[in-house]
Amino acid sequence: MAEKVIRVDDIDGSEGDDVAKRDFELLGRTFTIDLSDDNDKRLHEMLDALAPFIDNAVEVKPAGKGRKTARAAKIKGYTNGDVRAWALREDIEVSERGKISDEVYAAFIETHPDAKPDA
């Protein structure tokens, strides 16, 4: 028993002997679509018209998490929360959030010698 494959144009839904699977490239990627000769011609005209814009454009990469750089530890064995709690108990001005000043770290290490980071 024979089977007949009928291809349908993915753009306008037409059927015909000229409808075929057509491959095209865009931005280094290959795509495929079933098109008639007329729609294949239209596709390539559009790609040709688009080419100068793509050639002169700059790709925008999605924003991502920045690379974290390794920093020397300010203290060893304690958290910033520990430093803040200590500073508040000692009536040393320290922000609730954000960066802790080097002076506060130095004072904490002075009273907690085990917190001194390895050099």
UniProtKB/TrEMBL annotation:
Domain of life: Bacteria
Taxonomic lineage from the root: Bacteria, Bacillati, Actinomycetota, Actinomycetes, Streptosporangiales
A GO molecular-function descriptor: DNA binding
Full protein name: Lsr2 family protein
Keyword DNA-binding applies: yes
Record Pfam families: Lsr2, Lsr2_DNA-bd
Record keyword DNA-binding present: yes
Domain Lsr2 DNA-binding: 78-108
InterPro entries: E3-bd_dom_sf (IPR036625), Lsr2-like_dimerization (IPR042261), Lsr2_dim_dom (IPR024412), Lsr2_DNA-bd (IPR055370)
Signal peptide: none
Start and end residues of each Lsr2 dimerization domain: 1-58
Keyword annotations of the record: DNA-binding
